[in-house]
Predict the structure of Yip1 family protein.
Amino acid sequence: MFPNHMFGLLYHPREEWDAIRKEGAPSLVQVFVRYALLLALIPPVSLFIGSTQMGWSVAGGDVVKLSTESAVPIAIAFYFALLVGIAFVAYCMYWMERTFGVTASFERCLIFTVYTSTPMFLAGFIGLVPILWLDFFVVLAAVAYSVYLLYSGIPIFMDIPEERGFIFASSVLTVGLCALVGCMAITVIMWGMGIAPSFI
């Protein structure tokens, strides 16, 4: 069910959003355990393998690798940060619903958030390839498509007019960007406290 919708969103997003909306919301446990927990594993595991086994080279210089002891806590923290980020954005959507005249549940907001962020999770596989410019462009394309899914999906999935959907989607995008900045700030604070990666 989820894989069909996931690939349908890549090929014909508007029709797929309508099918997802008519299908109804699965349970919170089903959404988180079956979908979010597995999808969120892709970027941390890929980056762990890429940074410890393959290494990274900036502008064709020396290859730099993370030590396994350093990479494991970073990968675990990244995994939980992704899960918290999904839940945070979904909760903010749920909180904003009444403002935009929508009566949906937290489960529906969570499934919408998971579907919308799927291209970014799948782009996490590129972390296996230690080519910085390639990784940048793949992640940039995934983010652009996720934003497209957000703006095209909210009016259909939430069953609201396009104009209100645009404002709602812009609000959700702002929340997502604020969450990203918050994660970056926490990372800088942790590195400043001495919890920084060690390279080999």
The mean pLDDT is 85. The chain has one domain: 2-20+29-192.
